[in-house]
Structure to design on (302 residues):
């Protein structure tokens, strides 16, 4: 953990790490806004941060100069901060990492985060992300993602998170998820879909859907009252904009028709029940189960 600077060492129970990065992975700030909301609601304390010196091109991600007093100023560097929360109402505590996607040494950066997890008995990592798509804001929020091992992937599906089939360029989330999986950490990635024409930041509707899913998935004590109020205000503002813009309203109606057509096509193509897991999925889950059993019995996992 050469690049990690520890500022507190709390005793945490089976903590899960929730990760959100600003940048390419964060359409409408749905990931970082989710992370900040958790930290604010829980009044979480800072636990550690990552020294930015090795990972950023400061002419691209510039430090920020903040005025501290009449003759005093302070430079704030790009941050990757870890905050902890003792979850009194659940069986696990939480560490939230909020950061900025680095430009340099992604493998070293990911290894540093994995090393932090190993040092603090973190066995599950959940990354958050957002992307834009041609969808109407009037439809329920679409969440997609991936997870490993297979039982965790099925848990995501049971919560309405669709399995992603994306192949292509990736960001730090993809690199970090791969590094976690190589070290046999449980890893899940949840992405919220943001309407392309409504990319204002933040988007409380998508954030609310992500945090509701996260709360149910991890049994977390998240007070979403303020976020639901923000979502209502956001919906009213959007409706006011549409009232004054007939062209945009017509475009939204076209997207709604397209979404209905795609849903009908999907319903006709898919059977009425979830497909059975593949043989490969069953083998992976059985191996994971046996490793957990050996660990509980005092043996060493293979």
């Amino acid at each position: 953990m050469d690049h990690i600077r520890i500022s507190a060492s709390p005793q945490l129970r089976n903590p899960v790490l929730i990760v959100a990065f600003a940048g390419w992975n964060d359409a409408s700030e749905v990931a970082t806004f989710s992370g900040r909301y958790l930290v604010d609601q829980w009044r979480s304390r800072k636990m550690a941060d990552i020294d930015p010196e090795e990972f950023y091109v400061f002419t691209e991600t510039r430090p920020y100069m903040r005025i501290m007093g009449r003759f005093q100023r302070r430079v704030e560097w790009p941050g990757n901060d870890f905050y902890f929360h003792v979850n009194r109402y659940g069986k696990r505590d939480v560490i939230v990492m909020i950061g900025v996607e680095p430009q340099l040494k992604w493998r070293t950066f990911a290894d540093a985060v994995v090393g932090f997890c190993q040092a603090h008995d973190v066995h599950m990592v959940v990354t958050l992300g957002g992307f834009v798509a041609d969808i109407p804001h009037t439809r329920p929020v679409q969440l997609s993602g991936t997870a490993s091992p297979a039982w965790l992937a099925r848990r995501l599906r049971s919560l309405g998170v669709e399995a992603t089939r994306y192949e292509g360029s990736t960001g730090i989330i993809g690199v970090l998820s791969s590094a976690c999986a190589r070290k046999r950490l449980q890893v899940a990635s949840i992405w919220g879909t943001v309407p392309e024409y409504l990319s204002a930041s933040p988007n409380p509707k998508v954030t609310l859907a992500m945090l509701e899913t996260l709360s149910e998935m991890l049994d977390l004590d998240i007070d979403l009252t303020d976020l639901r109020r923000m979502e209502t205000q956001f919906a009213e503002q959007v409706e006011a904009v549409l009232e004054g813009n007939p062209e945009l309203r017509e475009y939204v109606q076209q997207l709604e028709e397209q979404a209905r057509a795609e849903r009908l096509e999907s319903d006709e193509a898919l059977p009425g029940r979830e497909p059975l897991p593949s043989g490969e999925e069953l083998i992976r889950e059985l191996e994971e189960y046996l490793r957990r059993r050996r660990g509980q019995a005092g043996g060493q996992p293979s």
